[in-house]
Input
Amino acid sequence: MNGSMASIGKLIDEMVPLDLARTDVILFPPIPYVAMVVERVRNAGVSVGVQNIHSELAGAFTGEVAAEMAKELGATHVLVGHSERRRLFGESDAFIAQKCAAAIRGGLVPIICVGETLTERADGRAEAVVAAQLNAIVDVVGIDVFRSAMVAYEPVWAIGTGRTATPTDAQIMHAAIRAGIGMVDATIADALRILYGGSVNADNASALFGEADVDGGLVGGASLNARQFLDICKAA
Output
């Protein structure tokens, strides 16, 4: 819930002239600005997604947005299961799986966010927690969702805290995610794009993206600064 029409417009103005052809860039503005951003980046090779959808097509869900509504605005992607949705709004693995199904129904590509808390990591349960989050998706929509969907690993303890998983930490978890998917379908696992999200910035992006199984970033606070965000795109 950051930004304004003016600040988002400024970010886009600084992005559009740059050559981003070697990267896939997706912007996730707050829902009131989605249509504006879609129009502004129409010829810039940049995609637009939404930060959240509801699991239902329509109904008495005041304040919620259906995948089909987001698609009509021009969105192509959606974040599903972001750690803030899990932590602040109590979204369960089961509900997140339903939202993933809704994204597919509505023609949006889901970016499925997974990650563990500091306590879960300290207890040695990090990989098991992430595997359970992904298995909940597979149980509802099947393994084929990962032919188009992306996974974003966001260690909860490294989001907005200034703490960052080391490149080695990220690689170990990303490799575990790929191996877990590979146990069901090796071809899908090999092609799956796994993003790292957890205080990604211009200083650590190159080292993170240099790891074999880190295919990109889910950028939070640094995306509010056009220069930092663009430096991260260049690192990719």
About this structure: The longest strand covers residues 109-114. The CA atoms of residues 14 and 233 lie 13 Å apart.
